[in-house]
Design brief:
Ferritin; 0% strand; 5 helices
């Protein structure tokens, strides 16, 4: 008879080390922090009547929250206890659009390093379940960095004429995003 991998509480037996679970929980906080930062950037652009840039960052905020929830679900699925850390308040004032987008690019580079750190822990643990889960995030980070790099390039070329960026975002997709619907 096959042995059950369920504990008495109905949760799966622990399928990850405590070190990995701690790191995954920390990443939940990192992703939630990114979501809040993107909300702050979106609100900055929204208050400047730049709806395409605002919409772009509101969507980024939603995406980061989705990433956090993927980590939450994974921790639950592997039998870990979800412990969401405190999240620092985001920066809310920006001297320029380029500063806001540059912050986003720097953040995505930081997140990439965080994901690599998780991959290293999973490798040390020989946790192939976690490695397969984290593969998606590794691929996602290439898209995120490319998107923010493209947006920063557009903003820097536009200088003070952010309407050019607004028009470009309305007409063309950057990164994995779709262009705004016409009409």
């Amino acid at each position: 008879m096959a042995r059950s991998t369920r504990t008495r509480a109905g949760n799966p037996a622990l399928l990850a080390s405590s070190k990995l679970i701690t790191a995954l929980n920390r990443q939940v906080g990192n992703e939630m922090g990114a979501s809040l930062q993107y909300v702050a950037i979106a609100a900055h652009f929204d208050s400047a009547n730049l709806p395409q840039l605002a919409g772009f960052f509101y969507r980024q905020a939603d995406e980061e929250r989705e990433h956090a929830m993927k980590f939450v679900k994974f921790v639950v699925d592997i039998g870990g206890r979800v412990e969401i850390p405190a999240v620092a308040a985001p920066k809310s004032g920006f001297a320029s659009a380029a500063e806001a987008v540059r912050l986003s690019l720097e953040w995505e580079r930081t997140v990439t390093e965080q994901i690599y750190g998780l991959v290293e822990i999973a490798r040390e643990d020989k946790n192939y379940i976690a490695l397969r889960f984290l593969d998606w995030f590794v691929d996602e980070q290439l898209e995120e960095i490319t998107t923010m790099d493209q947006l920063l390039s557009l903003v820097e070329r536009a200088g003070d004429n952010l309407l050019w960026v607004e028009d470009h975002l309305a007409r063309h997709a950057i990164g994995g995003a779709e262009a705004a619907p016409a009409g």
